[in-house]
Amino acid sequence: MNTKNLVREVQKRVAQDADGYYPGAALAQWFAKARDAELWRINAFEVAGALAVKREKLLATFIRLAQDGVLDLNWDFHCTHCNAVAGTHNHLREATAGNHCPLCNMDFRNDLARNVEVTFTPSGRWYTIDRGFLAERTRQVVQAHKEKRIRLPAVYVSGLDCLHVPLFRQMFESDTLSLRESLAISQVCIMFTDIKGSTELYDRLGDSTAYGLVRDHFDVLFKAVEDHHGVIVKTIGDSVMASFRRPADGVDAALAIREAFAEFNRRENLKNEVIVKIGLHAGATIMVNLNNRLDYFGQVVNMAARIQGTADGGQIVVSSAVREDPDSLARMKGRVKALRRRVENLKGISAQQTTFRLEFAEGAAAAKAHRAA
Fold this sequence. Notes:
By secondary structure, this protein is an alpha+beta fold. It has helices at 4-16, 25-33, 36-39, 44-51, 55-67, 131-146, 159-163, 166-171, 198-205, 207-227, 247-267, 299-309, 320-323, 326-332, 364-372; strands spanning 71-78, 85-89, 98-101, 106-109, 116-122, 183-195, 230-236, 239-244, 276-290, 293-297, 316-319, 338-344, 353-359. The strands form 3 sheets. Strands 6, 7, 8, 9, 10, 11, 12 and 13 form an 8-stranded mixed sheet that branches. Strands 2-1-5 form a 3-stranded antiparallel sheet. A two-stranded antiparallel sheet has the order 3-4. Helix 4 (44-51) packs across helix 5, helix 9 packs across helix 10 (207-227) and helix 11 (247-267) runs parallel beside helix 14 (326-332). The longest helix has 21 residues, at 207-227.
């Protein structure tokens, strides 16, 4: 085992890094001591535990190393019947909605949240896994399958975890799905935001001033989303669509956005000129390639957009799915005064839907001002 070249490359990236993604010399030390069994399929979350650093930070580290060509990023598709890796790709564009497992001779559908694992392997330019190890590993997997002992790691990076690292979207923007493919996602939280009365804003302030405010508003929104483990999916005019791995993260982001714009209006000496309304919904959807970018498609997306459309100025409105999530309720505790239930018809949705408006401990005059804006 000789990891000298690999360690040298990691150290070089540490020295060149200007964004602070790398946890310093500890990472180079880990690579120096790692054996083939650890390097064959590196689990970024396990390494984060070993180095006592945040999972998301180290995952971003490995993503950057993959972009720099030090590591290969693997999309591993586990059979949903036996858990064996039935297919693996280095690029998301090679992925398919389903796979066939040669070990148990079964077809299965892929779910980015449940059976798609993201691992990393040193690039062959810097380190080569011993063929003897690979042969022995294959033998072990076949034997474990016979004995029904194959298990997914207790902690692993799911495909959805990877897609919720902003750096992945920045660095692998072109690595999207085939136009004819989609990947299921059993649970994701979708957020839509919009500026209340943006047309009137342009009319009142003039195009140049209003446009500057809208651009500044995007900066505030993007930071709040990324600070709370979310990613921006796209902008649509003055609106933003974002996604979160967990509903509770979406709730955190929504509360942070509300506070950030109160401060934004104060700082810019604005009389509530920029008032953002927010809608959140969570559930199953599919990921697709739309305009050569990763996007979501399905009723969960439609519902989130419609829920946002019911919000008044400055309001946060969530669906029953978000309201019923225990972690989401825990994030609201002490920050939200009440949840006002409403049953309403949403455009394009056949059944009536129950939504909840977050109410805050503010005076009636302030609440009235928000609604009138």
